[in-house]
Every structure is written in structure tokens, then in C-alpha cells.
């Protein structure tokens, strides 16, 4: 993935556990590859409507393909901060 064309985006992220007014939020410049381009290369099954992400610590999340492909909100697979 690091050999593919990379983009940089300044993004504010907030932890899902953050309470209103909490401090679990921050800004960073992220380096990564557009997920929509990765999906184009991977060719998800025609019936697929989500991508399942699973982290090393066991956390899982499903993200709709429509969100991952939305040009108004480009998603990145981040490889650097």
C-alpha cells in the first residue's frame, strides 16, 4: 500500500467514547491512500454493501460502501500521521 499514490488530509477525529466537552479529540495531518481507489482495485462482491474492519485489539466496525465511496467525504486508509 505504501507504494501507491498517497494523499495528505488534515482531519479532526473524536473518540466514540468522548463525552460532550471531553478532551478525547485532536487534529492531525494524515497520510494515506483513498479507500475508494482500493475498493476499485479489490472489486467487492456485487451484493456487498459494507466493509468490515477489524483491529488488532479485537474492535470491529462496519462501514457502508456508499460512505467509503462518497466523493464529498474522501476516506483514507491511513499509513502515517
Keywords:
mainly beta; 81 residues; 5 strands; globular; three-stranded antiparallel beta sheet; two-stranded antiparallel sheet
Spatial extent as radius of gyration: 14 Å
Q: Please state roughly what percent of the residues sit in beta strands, choosing from under 5%, 5-15%, 15-25%, 25-35%, 35-45% or over 45%.
A: 35-45%
Mean pLDDT reading: 93
Order of helices and strands: EEHEEHE
Note the total helix count.
Answer: 2
How would a crystallographer describe the biggest sheet? 3 strands, antiparallel
Fraction of residues in helix = 10-25%
* Structural classification: mainly beta
- Report, as a whole number of angstroms, the end-to-end distance: 15 Å
- List low-confidence stretches: none
In spatial order, strands of the major sheet run 1-2-5
Name the overall outline. globular
Q: Care to count the β-strands?
A: 5
Structure overview:
With 81 residues, this protein is mainly beta. Helices cover 15% and strands 41% of the residues. It has helices at 35-42, 65-68; strands at residues 7-14, 25-34, 50-54, 60-64, 76-80. Strands 1-2-5 form a 3-stranded antiparallel beta sheet. The protein has a two-stranded antiparallel ribbon with strand order 3-4. A hairpin with a 5-residue loop joins strand 3 (50-54) and strand 4. The chain is globular. The model has no long low-confidence stretch (mean pLDDT 93).
Amino acid at each position: 500500500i505504501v507504494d501507491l499514490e498517497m494523499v495528505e488530509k488534515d482531519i479532526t477525529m473524536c473518540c466514540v467514547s468522548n463525552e460532550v466537552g471531553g478532551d478525547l479529540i485532536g487534529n492531525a495531518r494524515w497520510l494515506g491512500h483513498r479507500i475508494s481507489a482500493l475498493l476499485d482495485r479489490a472489486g467487492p462482491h456485487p451484493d456487498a454493501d459494507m466493509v468490515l474492519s477489524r483491529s488488532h485489539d479485537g474492535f470491529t466496525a462496519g462501514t457502508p460502501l456508499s460512505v467509503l465511496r462518497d466523493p464529498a467525504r474522501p476516506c483514507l486508509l491511513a499509513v502515517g500521521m
